[in-house]
Amino acid sequence: MAVSPADVKKLRDKTGAGMLDCKNALVEANGDFAEAEKVLKKAGLAKADKKSGRATTEGNVFTRITDNKAVILELTCETDFVASNETFQATGAKLVETVIEKGLTEVTDELNAMVKEAIAVLNENMSVKRFSVMDIADDEAVVDYIHAGGKIGVLIKVKCDSAATAAKEEVKAFAFDAALHAAAFNPTFLNKDSVDAKYIADQEEIFTAQTLALGKPENVAAGIVKGKMSKHIAQICFVDQKFVKDDKITVKQAADQAGKAVGGSVELTDYIYFQVGEEI
Fold this sequence. Notes:
Blueprint: H1 5-15, H2 19-28, H3 33-50, E1 58-65, E2 69-77, H4 80-83, H5 86-102, H6 109-122, E3 126-135, E4 140-147, E5 152-160, H7 163-166, H8 169-185, H9 197-213, H10 218-236, E6 242-243, E7 246-250, H11 251-261, E8 266-275
Antiparallel strand pairs: 1-2, 2-3, 4-5, 5-8, 6-7
Protein name: Elongation factor Ts
GO molecular function: translation elongation factor activity
Organism: Spirochaeta isovalerica
């Protein structure tokens, strides 16, 4: 049957599919819009399966925070152009919302189905590369920060002496500044206690070899290596780094100041940093 350009446009506006695909779907469905949508969906899902092998190195990071949970998710695609598309953005928002609502801890068939529907519209391969969930206690506060047009995302958690302290705007302001810091410097570890023992051993071996190569006696080299390790740990541990908003103090000292300012205590206890395309 013949279909009008107006009907084709109407279907395209509703589904986001191409004009020719919309026209063919309407013809196959004999002008029935609901049936035409089903035709497009079936065709799109078939296309999605064919595109599953394509590399997805672009994308965005999405976050969602509720009273007791926070999620950060990386959704990838083939091109930066699609990453900025409204359908892609809406899919990312729907994905993090579903993770929170369903209490998900891993990628499920339901999430993959949402992605396939977006592939059908956008005509590019897409994938939920990863996501992480933070639990939030009453005496904790979590803030998020999206940087570089969605290419970097951060969640920051602080623990306070009470729920009242955690709810204060000054505490959330510190947490947000800490998120800016993480986005800028991507700390390797949270604090000294979280540094992997093998990492410390490997780094000490490197510093020892470098020091001995300079002709330093072993007893002297030991002291030099200790000093180098102390400086190195401070550089890679979040709480010991110079604070992005004031390089005269560390992140921990900034947290202490934030707590003192509101008559309580504030401690940075966790963070998650996602960057689109990074190796995991």
